Amino acid sequence: MTLGQDSSLGIFAGHEDVGKPARPGSVQYDAARGAYLVTGGGDNMWSTNDAFHYVWKQVSGNVSLAADVRWPGSSGNPNAHRKAALILRQSQDNDSPYVDAVVHGNGLTSLQFRETKGGVTAEVQANLGALAAPARIQIEKRGDYAIMSVAAEGKPLQPMGGACRLELKEPFYAGLAVCSHNDAVTETAEFTKVELGAPPAYAPPVAERSRSSLEVVPVPPSDRKVAYFTRDHVEAPNWSPDGNFFIFNQGNRLYRMPTNGEPALIDTGPLNRINNDHGISPDGALLAISDQGLAGGSRIYVLPITGGTPRLITSNAPSYFHGWSPDGKTLVFCGQRTLEVNGRRVSNFDIYTIPAAGGPETRLTTDPAKDDGPDYSSDGKYIYFNSDRTGHMQVWRMNANGSNQEQITKDEYGNVFPHPSPDGRWVVFLSYPPGAQDHPANMDVILRLMPAAGGRIRNLGKMFGGQGTINVSSWAPNSRSVAYVSYLPF
Predict the structure, then answer these.
(1) 316/334 Cα distance (integer angstroms)
(2) Could you tell me the residue range of the domain that residue 16 belongs to?
């Protein structure tokens, strides 16, 4: 478990500079106070290489590391991104895989991670609300997932959402790190009440296992940010056309939340079994929803965006809304219907359209495979959808009238819920591991991005999610960000 335990370092075994800081780091341990004063230099802990001072111990298995963190004294630049971190690291190489919970000098608090040796660091930034900086932080690893928790002075630790997934082979390192973010100087952070050990057994009620994190990731991909975290189950965010608020499903009801505020319930009249298939009209005036309570089986309704009396659109059930046409005149949806095929009755999921004002539905797909998750391109020429015609879900595209159906993705993943960006440049979709069927909940998934014109597919983020992550379009109106929901795996 340790290499050459040094009693002068308390619970840790050693310390050293990682990378090559211009000024060497150090550590002072005050046993009476249980305090570690860690001094570090280095230009950064970021990108593909790191430079910092590390106080460490080798560990194996599931790990929990927590500490109170503060910056004693003053800094030449108090707003600099100097970093104090609790870090789990594969090795002492400067390009090692790692995950950390880090507090910056300006209060920014993040879960940072590098998935592979020499890879690029990614980040999930916590939403601290009115808290300028946490007094205590914790990083917790169970299996291949890690989460960060924070606390104000005297308050209990609370998860901040945004779990990350990466593999650390045993044994690996756990410890305290400081980077000055300015190679010409050193910075000192104080860590007290340091606790390192196996995390406690975790067996919460089923309702607690879906703790939800509404997050935003920029396009092209960069740092993820937590917009809202709750212990309740949240699904399927929509981003308003003016960019000022989200709408999401929580507890079979819909909520509206300013991008920097708290959620409020939307009045949907008698509809209280709303599922995660809903969307805002292009002009921002109307909301299309799918509810399965009033008449038995999911049906689509339209109501004012501010709430009010819903108007029934589809008389047939089940019908699951997925997208508005760019002119706001047509809804595209997935419907399950019993049909006559070669003299026998079969039940099939297909893609349909229907006038937003109401009227007859039009069937666009007829393949006996399951077709689902349709959404219009920004110019209205195409409808993207997912289908398991090849044996597992892939992204397909067809003309808006249902003609010329063609497969777009062709890989080993199960690819679902394609959503074209408002500017027409991109398509975001969700990928399940090989072998997954349909779009189940609570699995390892990847949010992916591909150019609408074709080209390299990029990852926006790996997460614990699935059903509820991006069932409906969640693009920012400027096409520069995507909202989604991830769930804490423990």
Answers:
(1) 11
(2) 7-197
